[in-house]
């Protein structure tokens, strides 16, 4: 299956459900799904405004982060980017949307991490301590690094999920997913984007950490920092391949600069011990 479908697809048959933008920006995120022979396929759009239309590029961010996690060797949900015609409130839009498959295995049910934490935590146990007690330490440390690299602002307690199989009595943390509200997603114009401080530590949502992506890195004990496949400057072409039709080149260049600078900052932190 091609990761990017460039030929315009007629997807006006999809029914979009409205989800409030939890980042605090004006707008909505619209989601849809369809059933197929191999299970459900889930679709989502970038930020949508009833007056301005589809104004964000979160779906392109998902593909970039998908590729980044593949390079680093981190388990994650894979996304497909589709050039599509959609219908919202009886009005057609030509856009780019994301598609993904259900990551649940047969017999599994899912629950948001924050809900599971509230039901199963020990007295005075923090979300981070709870995850460590249940054996999810490695995934949490990887997530904190990734969220620093992309400045993910939306790792709330429902953007992490628990997968349970009651028959087999198994429980696991779901692969990382939903990274759209990251990188330069809050920049509303090219001018703002070009002025953006790529290393700024802006407020983030992190259910297991703090409001600072940089401080969240420091939650990881030095001897437990994840060992990733290294990111190199040659990976730029891999991350950005085929995306110029979905995003302007100067935005793509700036996104790579952001990821690269933040990767170097993480490497420097690791070198300091």
General description of the model:
- It is a single chain.
- The protein is of the alpha+beta class and 273 residues long.
- It has 2 domains: 4-101; 109-271, Phosphatidylinositol 3-kinase Catalytic Subunit, Chain A, Domain 5 (Orthogonal Bundle).
- The protein has helices at residues 58-72, 113-120, 127-133, 137-150, 190-195, 213-217, 235-240, 249-271, and strands at residues 4-10, 17-20, 28-36, 39-44, 48-49, 53-54, 80-88, 91-101, 109-112, 154-155, 161-165, 170-173, 205-206.
- The strands form 4 sheets. A 6-stranded mixed sheet has the order 1-7-8-4-3-2. It has a 3-stranded antiparallel sheet with strand order 9-11-12.
- Helix 4 crosses helix 8 (249-271).
- The longest helix is centred in the last third of the chain and has 23 residues, at 249-271.
- 32% of the residues are buried.
Topology overview:
Blueprint: E1 4-10, E2 17-20, E3 28-36, E4 39-44, E5 48-49, E6 53-54, H1 58-72, E7 80-88, E8 91-101, E9 109-112, H2 113-120, H3 127-133, H4 137-150, E10 154-155, E11 161-165, E12 170-173, H5 190-195, E13 205-206, H6 213-217, H7 235-240, H8 249-271
Parallel strand pairs: 1-7, 10-13
Antiparallel strand pairs: 2-3, 3-4, 4-8, 5-6, 7-8, 9-11, 11-12
Helix pairs in contact: 4-8
H and E order? EEEEEEHEEEHHHEEEHEHHH
Structural class: alpha+beta
- Strand tally is 13
Global outline: globular
Give the low-confidence spans.
20-26
Oligomer: single chain
């Amino acid at each position: 299956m091609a990761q990017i479908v460039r030929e315009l697809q007629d997807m006006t048959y999809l029914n979009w459900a409205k989800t409030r933008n939890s980042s605090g920006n004006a707008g909505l995120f619209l989601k849809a799904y369809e059933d197929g022979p191999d299970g459900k396929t889930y679709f989502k759009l970038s930020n949508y405004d009833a007056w301005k239309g589809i104004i964000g590029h979160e779906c392109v961010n998902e593909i970039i982060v998908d590729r980044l996690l593949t390079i680093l060797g981190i388990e994650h949900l894979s996304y497909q980017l589709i050039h599509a015609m959609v219908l919202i409130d009886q009005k057609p839009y030509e856009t780019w949307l994301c598609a993904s498959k259900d990551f649940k295995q047969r017999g599994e049910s899912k629950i948001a991490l924050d809900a599971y934490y509230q039901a199963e935590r020990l007295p005075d146990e923090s979300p981070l301590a709870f995850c460590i007690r249940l054996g999810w330490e490695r995934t949490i440390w990887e997530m904190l690094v990734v969220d620093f690299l992309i400045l993910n602002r939306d790792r709330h307690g429902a953007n992490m999920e628990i997968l349970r199989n009651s028959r087999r009595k198994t429980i696991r943390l779901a692969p990382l997913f939903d990274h759209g509200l990251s990188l330069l997603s809050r920049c509303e114009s090219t001018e703002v984007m070009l002025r953006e401080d790529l290393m700024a530590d802006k407020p983030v949502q992190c259910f297991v950490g703090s409001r600072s992506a940089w401080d969240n890195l420091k939650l990881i004990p030095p001897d437990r920092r994840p060992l990733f496949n290294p990111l190199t400057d040659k990976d730029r072409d891999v991350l950005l391949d085929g995306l110029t039709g979905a995003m302007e080149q100067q935005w793509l260049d700036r996104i790579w600069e952001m990821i690269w600078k933040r990767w170097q900052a993480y490497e420097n932190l690791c070198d300091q011990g």
